[in-house]
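Quick one - inputs below.
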Amino acid sequence: MIGQKIRELREENDFLLRQLAAKMDIDTAQLSKMERGERSFKKEEIIMIAEILNANQEELLTLWLADKIYQIVKGEEQVIEALKIVEHKLPKV
Amino acid sequence: MIGQKIRELREENDFLLRQLAAKMDIDTAQLSKMERGERSFKKEEIIMIAEILNANQEELLTLWLADKIYQIVKGEEQVIEALKIVEHKLPKV
DNA sequence: GTAAATTTGTCAATAACCGTCAAGACAACT
DNA sequence: AGTTGTCTTGACGGTTATTGACAAATTTAC
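Output:
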């Protein structure tokens, strides 16, 4: 989800995996796994990527957060209700 | 949130912490921390508690899941949007 | 004040995560 | 077929986070 988006962005900007990885100062294999959802991005990495690829940071962070949520709720039966509860629990909404 | 609910249920049923802990076969101190949100419940523990306290298992699992989600999203700025994305990503909704 | 119940703190054990590397797969080209 | 470049896979330690177990401290009820 966020990984796929980042891969698209990276390819649009004609960056190779190893080039983006180098700019982020991480291992190429790591980034490969991250883009394919095998490992997860840290928030700081998303921010870094947004800068490097001139992308919308807010949008990426939103996708990143959605991904984290999805990892937790997938497979559970009470997802919808739980999401509703969380929405209502948020401050100043 | 889920902890508070369980504490209420436990007290309604006149169970002491140590009694419920004993039935669950966990440490009393652990359960104390769980009810106060200092540590988290496992799914199996919620199910066990629902049985012991004759409570609505679905409702408890929903609260439990909402809690897990909330732990992740609290403090983030893109929560609402992220929640929406997750909702739309769910199968057969 | 005492006893029971709960909370707090600590520490080792376990599990989850991350960085690094080496080898493998795959396609493009010669 | 062999070479090159890119990406993927798997394995191994190291680090960090979570948990279980216990003792001590605190609170509550009498």
